[in-house]
Amino acid sequence: xSALSRLARSMWHQLEPIHAVLYFSPEAFAEAAALGxxxxxxxxxxxxxxTAPLGRAGARLATALYYNFSPDMVAGHVPGVxxxxxxxxxxxxxxxxVDKTYRGLLGDxxxxxxxxxxxxxxxxxxxxxxxxxxxxxxxNLDLPWPDDEPHLVLWQAATVLREHRGDGHLAALAxxxxxxxxxxxxxxxxxxxxxxxxxxxxxxxxxWAEARERLAARGLVQDDGQATERGRALRDQVERMTDELAxxxxxxxxxxxxxxxxxxxxxxxxxxxEAGLLPMTSTLGITTVRVPD
Length: 293
What we know:
This protein has one domain (3-275). By secondary structure, the protein is an all-alpha fold. The longest helix is centred in the middle third of the chain and has 26 residues, at 150-175. It is built from 15 helices and no strands.
């Protein structure tokens, strides 16, 4: 694994949680509820918030871009979320949610010089990405920057960068010939997260079992669902390609400035973890996926 790929992975660890509060904070659920979304489950607001930069996306477009969600689950939310609130209203609500979340966590620090410098560096990285083949990143990069609020600029830049990485990750899964359900089954097989944690993606037990059978036929998982050496090697290939495809903004920003960004963003990262806003075990596998050599 190259130094640049390691840097890309390290910066993902730093910035992903800063972005992800949108899907878990009480303030985010409150803003969604004010728009009329059912917040008994996190999924209505999740699909609305994350899809809104695309405009009034339909079920097929959303299914293509979310990739490892069941098409039936996606269609259960999109395009219905736009019957509750227009994408423009959802975009306003998500910035309000992030603003309230971080002001509640950090108070005046959100407008301090550290936040302003972090925002400048993160925006520079985000604006440097190439958007070809990166629809989620491109849609978020098309949004206006909240220039007068450093913490919102930092969050929006983190969003562009994580979606840029995510778009590349889907390309890596496709290159590995892992279909949407197989992508999750193979990820669970290496111990990235318990199988039960993937239930939210909407696949039935039968669909999961059939995907496991297909992977077993390729010699990628054992009868007990654990990955074989070939299966682990394939997932390493996916992670390696994901890091390589995510490296562009960090190559352009440079290691020194990336390190400075990580240092300046650490109060945001620390506050998120200290507040316990994110689930202890997620399906991202940040703390469990082995870094490929």
